[in-house]
């Protein structure tokens, strides 16, 4: 199985909307780092699993969409708690919609909200 990973980072804000979230219920910033790993058993005719330029462009679009934004105000989080787990799923869905190389069979998105806490969403594509 081959894998190719791209990453980016940016600052965004959120607040949790669950009952009794403590200090996380107040708007605050995180320096998010996002890693996207593409996996597949075969390479394409150019010996790529995925075109890294396409993958980086998709991730850059995600970063531009959420950089310096309050996640709670974005449509992707409407009606949801903007947890780091939810954020990983939101990024997964966006990247999977844009990067559609036929050799990619699995995608994993890890969102780090600080140096010690991260969440991953992975699935077949």
UniProtKB/TrEMBL annotation:
Please spell out the taxonomic lineage of the organism that makes this protein: Archaea, Methanobacteriati, Methanobacteriota, Stenosarchaea group, Halobacteria
Cofactor field: Zn(2+)
This protein is called: PtpS family protein
Give the UniProt keywords, A-Z: Lyase, Metal-binding, Zinc
Q: Does the keyword DNA-binding apply?
A: no
Source species of the chain? Natronomonas moolapensis (strain DSM 18674 / CECT 7526 / JCM 14361 / 8.8.11)
Q: Which InterPro entries match?
A: 6-PTP_synth/QueD (IPR007115), 6-PTP_synth/QueD_sf (IPR038418)
GO molecular-function terms, A-Z: lyase activity; metal ion binding
Q: Which Pfam families match?
A: PTPS
- Family annotation (SUPFAM superfamilies): Tetrahydrobiopterin biosynthesis enzymes-like
